[in-house]
Write a structure and sequence with these properties.
188 residues; 8 helices; binds heme C; elongated
């Protein structure tokens, strides 16, 4: 029994030492274009999906109508397209240089196979250590839901929303919300 315990302790200490040396001596990848660490993706995805299973909202609180898709398309262009791309556009220099690569959300399956609540959670909270920002301190809940339903239905958007995403709707921007009097830009 004593021999077994000593063996177990040596094995555990050895494992931590090996891990420590792996990171401390610079074996772990740090450049964005370096290969993955062993199990990096597996562990990161495990942590993410168990969090989301617990926390993502199950019901969509906004109607799936054209107005919400249009607002979502504008918010997406402003905040997301630089990394996640837009229909018919080449990936930007920023998107190309990131690790992990931001997935294309407007091409192929994107996240049309994920529930909108899961995408809402990712937009609100971001994904730590990936470059995916969390937006809950910058955007309203409505805006985040508008983008979540836009992305969940990216394969069947109304043509007007696709036109906005392709930059073809410059003539008719959505009505701007007037700023409160205190924040009005100074008149010339
Ligand atoms: C600075 C670059 C950047 C910006 C800006 C950005 N993202 Fe991301 N996003 C990423 C990266 C990188 C990932 C991949 C994370 C990973 O591999 O786990 C990601 C992942 C995601 C995912 C998960 C994709 C999947 O396959 O599960 C969603 C959804 C998402 N982003 C939505 C958005 C939305 C909506 C916006 C704008 C409000 C946005 N992102 C802005 C970089 C960005």
């Amino acid at each position: 029994m004593k021999g077994f315990l000593t063996g177990a302790i040596v094995a555990i200490v050895g494992m931590f030492l090996a891990l420590y040396i792996y990171f401390a001596a610079g074996f772990a990848p740090v450049a964005t274009n370096a290969p993955m660490m062993p199990f990096e993706k597996t562990f990161a995805h495990m942590a993410l999906s168990s969090h989301i299973d617990k926390e993502a909202p199950k019901n969509v609180p906004i109607p799936l109508n054209e107005a919400n898709y249009l607002a979502g398309a504008h918010a997406y262009l402003d905040n997301c397209a630089v990394c996640h791309g837009a229909p018919g556009k080449q990936p930007t220099a920023i998107a190309r240089g990131m690790f992990p690569h931001p997935p294309k959300l407007m091409e192929g399956t994107g996240v049309t196979d994920d529930p909108a609540g899961e995408t809402y959670w990712k937009i609100a909270n971001g994904i730590r250590l990936t470059g995916m920002p969390g937006f809950k301190d910058s955007l309203s809940e409505t805006q985040m839901w508008q983008m979540a339903v836009l992305l969940a239905n990216a394969d069947k958007l109304p043509p007007s929303a696709t036109a906005v995403l392709m930059g073809q709707n410059e003539a008719a921007p959505p009505p701007a919300t007037p700023l409160p009097a205190t924040q009005q830009p100074p008149s010339k």
